[in-house]
Amino acid sequence: MMKQDSIRDKLTGEFGEDVVKESVEYGGQIAVTVDKDHVVQVATFLKNDTELAFDYLSFVGGVDRLPRQPRFEMVYQLYSTTRKHRFRFKALLEEPESGQASIDSVFPVWPTADWHERETAEMFGITFNNHPDPRKLLLPDGWNVHPLRKDFPLEGTEDTPDLP
Question: In this structure, are strands 20-26 and 29-34 parallel, antiparallel, or unpaired?
Fold first, then answer.
């Protein structure tokens, strides 16, 4: 089993400090933050490198960091079924004034990202570029709200009508 800091060092060696921004250790795991524009390249490397072999994406989810900026964080939790180790990486997303935050989909690398990314898009309003099926999973089609955002009112909005 490869040590967490060795994985971080390998990523930094491959992509440099312009892509591998920072790392934080908590509870014996290291979470590495990478540049959002390189998420697919980092994911591909983590999967295809024979020493790392992260062949299973177990979780993708969003975090609303409001009032901090950048506002959103995407979290990717990986597992190697052959090497029996785990790893987490993140990407920070700005929410532009003119539209929704966006990031490239990792679906081409790990198809298990499908529903995770669709749920995150629906709940947080984050767009996943190049996702093959961006349909909603949980909310009715007429609802144009993002209920897991920190600024979503607890009492709902006019766009969240009562269900029959």
Answer: antiparallel
Contacts of 53 (CB under 8 A, 6+ apart): 47, 80, 82, 83
Q: Is the model more confident about 162 or about 24?
A: 24
Q: Which residues share a beta bridge with 32?
A: 23, 89
Please give the pLDDT value at position 161.
59
Confidence at 29, pLDDT banded by 50, 70, 90: confident
| Confidence (pTM) | 0.91
Average pLDDT over residues 133-144: 88
Both tokens of 121, joined, read 């898009």
Q: What are phi and psi of 62, to 5 degrees?
A: -100, 155
